[in-house]
Amino acid sequence: MKFAPKTRKASSKSAAKGAELLEERELRQMIATALHLAKSTGAEETEIHVDEVADTLTRFANNGIHQNVAEHGVTVSIRTVLDGRTARATTNRLDQDSLRAAIEASLSLAHSQPKDPLLLPMPGKQRYRRVNRFIKQTAALTAEDRARAVRRACDLAVKKGQVAAGIFASGQSQSAIGNSRGLFATYRETHAEFSITMQEEPAASWAKANSADVHAFDPQKLAERASEKAHLAVNARELAPGRFTVILEPAAVLDLVGFLFYDFAATALRDKRSCLNDRMGKQLFGNNITITDDAYHPLQQGASFDGEGLPRERVTLVDAGIPKNLVYSRASAKAAGKKPTGHGFALPNEYGEAPMNLVFGGGDSSLERMIASTDRGLLVTRLWYIREVDPYEKVMTGMTRDGLFLVENGRVTGAARNFRFNQSLIEMLKNVELLGPAVRATGEEAFEMVVPAMKVHEFHFSEATKF
Amino acid sequence: MWDLCTNALDTAKLRGATYGDVRGMHIRQRDLTTKNGQVGTLAQTESIGIGIRVLANGAWGFASTDRLTREGVAACAAQAVSIAKASALAKRGEVVMAPEESYIDSWQSPFRKDPFEIPLERQLALLLAADEEMRRVKGITLTETDMQFRKIDSWFASSSGSRIHQRKVISGCGIAATSFQGDEIQKRSYPNSFGGQYALQGYELIESLNLLKNAPIVAEEAAALHSASQCPEKIGTLILGGSQLGLQIHESVGHPIELDRVLGQEANFAGTSFLTLDQLNNLKYGSSIVNVVADARLDHGQGLGTFAYDDEGVPAQCTDIIKDGKFRGYLSNRETAHLIGLKRSSGTMRTESWNRLPIIRMTNVSLLPGTWDYDDLIADTSDGILMETNRSWSIDDRRYQFQFSTEIGWEIRGGKKVRMLKNPSYSGITTEFWNSCDAICKFDHWTLWGTPNCGKGQPMQTMGTGHGASPSRFRNVRIGTAFSNQ
Question: Of A8, A328, A454, B274, which alpha carbon lies 20 to 30 A from B31's?
Fold first, then answer.
């Protein structure tokens, strides 16, 4: 049997459009076949994941397209259980012989290890809340559509005497999971993303958006915003490093707080590598900080089930600055005497689980209001190359990038040269003065989340760079 | 696979491509980890497919598929041409490619022991034994070990007639002990952090690492760090251990010399470079003892940047990057070589997988050995700090200003290591730093370190790069800033 995905015939007119995804009945058939093969090979329990990706990405620089790519692939990942041992084998060869070989590889891997007394039986059938994140217009976007949008953005750059670089990506993907106890779940989504950097020597600025719906953002408006900010960023002043009041745009907030997500994993606490060890239930952040994990939030993406097929639950992680709850896989929940929350990774793994759909509570302060309320501070467009310096105090280092602006007496008075920061996230989230409305933010260091802009006092910049 | 490659090239030509190249790849990978004495990940993955890059209407298109039938590959080739024609709607100029001969060749990286033939039980037993050795040490709260093996077959075919098959075997392994006490998490890793050491070798790499001997040493150091003194904040003398210097080379030499960054092609994501074209042959990058090469040849060692041909069908080469302190060369490809006056690509186009476009990548970017014996270097240092094993790394998007911290430091006074320091860090400006280098250890202390996790490109690609380095000394370096609260 060969589960060949339906691909368009080689017509030069339509071939620039992506492939169509497998239908749900084909996914069910693939999983049923693999489960049948596993049973006949001697597996006691089997779990099958099928993942399909059909993505396209148009990349431009120096005011023209220089890379333009498409990919399509299907993988089948098989976890078997034999005598209290489990392992996984993954392949993108879909014929029966290859699936059987992957099952045998999984069994062989499982057999090679000591028995795991903590291994749980696979879960049975589950009920899922439906989410709709598949937008036909996004799936239908063609290379020509993307090229035309890119050309408009590049034309703007030329007109302004600037140089544009960026991407316009779109695609569709789906995942299915099924196991030998009857569990079955599927999820499909579309995704579109436009990111642009406008360069006006020696400065640059940036704008980016990401959504399931390509019509949720306007590439040309993003280009205009980046263009205006790049022009404002020319003639940057060199300031002495130190502690500043900062207004962090949502992308800057996202890329910082994104480093907190694994700290909320029950396994991370058990391994004593979370900054929340000995801090749960205490007033750790300001009382204006509330964080939930919510896969069903309208601005979120992603499946409503986890790596074992359990439905994701909405979890309040931080309530009014106090860390209240963690997320649990089935194994970590059993170890802690809690209920699983549907945040486990595919087994086997050593990390357990993590919240993947973080939503920060927002406020009603616009960026303009934050600027107007600031005597002296810095407006931060975006941060870059963020890394953890101290895992317990959660000190992060990184650079500002693509537009750092000086705010004086309630207005933007010019640009500043980029700074390096060394800043504790715990301290930062104690120092939040104002919050903007929570939006779907996208950056480059963390996966997309729903976060607000923030005005923060005493943010620590340690050194300046040369531009 | 060759038939499918030819089929793809024929279809692309029929559809209007003026040039095409095809990469079929079959990647097999095994991952083993343990944590606190239990098996963590135990997984095997294989992926096979084909990626087709074409020039049509003077613009590039790329498509990939895992549907390895004549029909599937033909549809993929047609899609690549169609995408190239769409690219032409917003192209900036004609693509000019440096000439390159065509090659028909087959090459396999050398290895003594195929890691996929070594029994899994043996591999796991070694990891579990190392894990146990670390857990014996009081104060250790988390132990982790990992091994990874990859076998990559690639078939490159171009419309100019090349047919190149390469097989690479890659091995990697590392262990780490973490200790949480009070309000502090300290960690030590061996032989390097973030996964350990990786090389273009077989299982002999793992056997050479002597994990069981080193496991208790790193665990004891992790526990001892809690009572060590804080690394001071000052301007002073810094000695970097080889693996940390390897990462310093990666970030402050390897990335800025990528010609696609220099030309603005990565401006939206990975960033640009301070090494503008006017700096070539003019910039004093480092002190006169600093010599850096980008060398993909086997003669340089079995690194993650070693191959016979790059993914554009160009043979492996050695390029001078810094010679006697002067900036001498970039990493280029067939499309960019002419922009720096070269008649030929320096052979650095590499792809993560069949479904990714090759882009300019580091090969083995290495600091050549100097003349110092390690013991003499320490003895010659009256007041300094030795830093070993990376803990964090960050550099700006033009690669000027960097900050690194390491897992452990040692105060050196009067030519001797006198005490352990915790939370060491240093920062600086790239060219000032390399110009402050006054001693490099000799070949006896030189290791070709593997960095398996270098991210670049959109869609993101992860690539392994090699960095040869021996312990070296730098003067007047800013130390301790990361943990300063001023």
Answer: A328
- Kind plus residue range of the DSSP H or E element containing A372: helix A367-372
Best mutation site among A119, A390, A460 for testing chain B: the one with the most B CBs within 10 Å?
A390
From chain B, pick out residues whose CB is under 8 angstroms from the CB of A423: none
Q: Which two tokens stand for residue B281?
A: 């042959």
Specify the number of domains making up chain B. Answer: 2
ipTM of the complex: 0.95
For residue range A84-100, list pLDDT tens digits in order: 999 999 999 999 999 99
Least Cα separation, residue A347 to chain B (angstroms): 8
A/B interface, count of CB pairs below 8 Å: 316
- Distant-in-sequence, close-in-space partners of A337: CB < 8 Å, separation ≥ 6: none
Q: Name the pTM for this structure.
A: 0.96
CA distance B320 to A262: 42
Same domain membership, residue B388 and residue B349: yes
Q: How much is the mean pLDDT over chain B?
A: 97
Give me the residues of chain A with pLDDT under 70, please. 1-19
Contact assessment for residue A145 and residue A194, using Cβ atoms and an 8 Å cutoff: no
Note whether B42 contacts A71, CB cutoff 8 Å. Answer: no
Cβ atoms of B196 and B189 within 8 Å: the answer is: yes
Q: Note whether A12 contacts B82, CB cutoff 8 Å.
A: yes
Cβ pair A69:B395 closer than 8 A: no
Model confidence over B310-325: pLDDT tens digits?
Answer: 999 999 999 999 999 9
Give the domain range for residue B175: 2-227
Of A13, A113, A467, the CB nearest to B42: A113
Q: What is the DSSP string of B327-386?
A: E---B--TTTGGGGT-SS--S-EE-SSTTS--EE---BEEEPP-SB-HHHHHHT-SEEEE
> CATH code at B137?
3.30.2290.10
Contacts of A62 in chain B (CB under 8 A): 92, 263-265
